Amino acid sequence: MADSAEAWERQPAESAAAWEAFACYRDLGLSRSIGKVAERLAKSRTLIERWSTAHRWVLRAEAWDREQDRLWRAEQHQAARDVARRHARLASAAQSKIVAQLQQLDPSRLSPSDVIRWLEVTIRIERQAYGMDVADVAPATKGSEAADVSGLTDEERRARMEQLRRELEARIGTLGGTES
Prior knowledge:
mainly alpha, 70% helix, 0% strand
């Protein structure tokens, strides 16, 4: 047996019976006690106490508990990453459908406020995806930019909508390329 055994593994000088008793003690979790081990293994309490002292059961069980906690936290961290990846894939799929709809959309049917609102939402989502501050994306006031767009001719509005569509596709393409 290797000398570098973890605290919760069988130790070099530990007999098979003492190891079995420690494993029983370790696996009892928060309710662990010498008395419970003695009862479960039908051994004398004195013998179990001697093994516990000789083989440092309390310290070894604490090491076991810390390791189990570390493993649990690592598992939770991985689960959170998996959720984030799944949500990113779902968002990407939804964005693809939105782009497909935008490509079929007649720009003359969109109000200037619709265009502005869609652009704000997509910018906010993109910034969140990169961990950027979304407070920097201030909603456009209804009067300022909407008035500028509403003064355009139908041809200018179509051209502006086409430009916005290309910008949106480029932004979505950039986001889609960062997924791992």
